[in-house]
Amino acid sequence: MLAVFSYPLQIHPSRASALALMNLVRPSEGAHRWAAVTLLELVGSLLIAITVMDLGKILGVVGATGSTMVSYILPGIVYVQTFRDFHLRRSLALGQLILGCIIMPVCLVLLFL
């Protein structure tokens, strides 16, 4: 029961984000696009569930990308975009952003070695 009712709650924000990004590239409203994105996400998650034997790898990828984004990349982007004047804190925020862009791929590569 938990899986049946939690999956729609998890797929909704993902589908909304994908549709918003698609509308930036090519504006279009309609049920066909909504159905195509939903079907793609359902089939993609089914294929991942069928092919992945070790859930630890998936959780590692989610942790490596999510924690790096929240801890390094997003705060750096927000600070750099908010404060346009050049000063030491802006330079440190830019350094944090660059460091996050280095840490994430390194963690993902080390996860699969």
Automatic annotation (TrEMBL):
Residues 3-109 form the Amino acid transporter transmembrane domain. It is a multi-pass membrane protein. It is found in: Vacuole membrane. InterPro entries: AA_transpt_TM. The chain crosses the membrane at residues 34-52, 58-80, 92-112. Keywords: Amino-acid transport, Membrane, Transmembrane, Transmembrane helix, Transport, Vacuole. Belongs to the amino acid/polyamine transporter 2 family. This is Amino acid transporter transmembrane domain-containing protein. It comes from Durusdinium trenchii.
